[in-house]
Amino acid sequence: MKEIQYEIIKEIAVLSTSESGYTKEINLISWNGKEPKYDIRTFSPNREKCGKGITLTADEATTLLKALQKELNSRD
């Protein structure tokens, strides 16, 4: 099985931290040397392990942002 490599290009935010120290983060990550994408996933302390996540292109992230803004604004 091919080893998956990643490089965190830009740390954007820690969204939450669990009692066990795992963090849910949004970062700009290059997976296997490819074009960086926005990435939301959990990481163990010291980033030794990562959980399943979701990657988004800039266009997808923009669409998500607009949808979330609309949703959150409708809650008022």
Would you write up a description of this structure?
This protein has 76 residues and is an alpha+beta fold. The chain has a single domain (6-74), classed as Transcriptional Co-activator pc4, Chain A (Roll), CATH 2.30.31. The chain is built from one helix and four strands, in the order E-E-E-E-H. The chain has one helix spanning 58-74; strands at 6-17, 23-31, 37-43, 50-56. Strands 1-2-3-4 form a four-stranded antiparallel sheet. The longest helix is centred in the C-terminal third of the chain and has 17 residues, at 58-74. It is flat. The termini are far apart. The relative contact order is 0.16. The model has no long low-confidence stretch (mean pLDDT 95).
